[in-house]
């Protein structure tokens, strides 16, 4: 099983989740963050810090977002193959016109990871 970034992330690129991820399994394009299911270790560290509640365990993805499971795998693979777009540090949020807005994040009690040297 893996975790899946679903519809609420579309056009709402908050990056709180990437700093909580211990294995750097997040990839990004212009509109969305994606989780590589081969890299995700199902630790759930990203789930409580997502301010738009877009990250769900694969088994909990509602039927209207079922396509996001395969889409995360496809998008992450394509981004990796094209040379990257792996995101490991928090960036300024990119709220586009389709963004429903930030919800109050739940404090997971876990400190954010320290930035990794480049």
Q: How does this structure look, described?
A:
- By secondary structure, this protein is α+β, with helices and mostly antiparallel strands.
- The protein has a domain at 9-86: Alpha-Beta Plaits (2-Layer Sandwich), CATH 3.30.70.20.
- It is built from two helices and six strands.
- The chain has helices at 16-20, 67-81, and strands at residues 3-5, 12-13, 26-28, 33-35, 55-57, 94-95.
- Strands 1-5 form a two-stranded antiparallel ribbon.
- A hairpin with a 4-residue loop joins strand 3 (26-28) and strand 4 (33-35).
- It is globular and about 30 Å long.
- The relative contact order is 0.29.
- The model is unreliable at 105-118 (pLDDT under 50).
Low-confidence stretches: 105-118
Distance, first to last CA = 30 Å
Gyration radius over CA: 13 Å
The overall strand count is 6
Helix residue percentage: 10-25%
Largest sheet: spatial strand order: 1-5
Alpha-beta classification: alpha+beta
Descriptive terms for the model:
single chain; 118 residues; alpha+beta; Alpha-Beta Plaits; two-stranded antiparallel sheet
Which helices and strands occur, and which strands form pairs?
Blueprint (H helix, E strand, L loop, with lengths): L2 E3 L6 E2 L2 H5 L5 E3 L4 E3 L19 E3 L9 H15 L12 E2 L23
Antiparallel strand pairs: 1-5, 2-6, 3-4
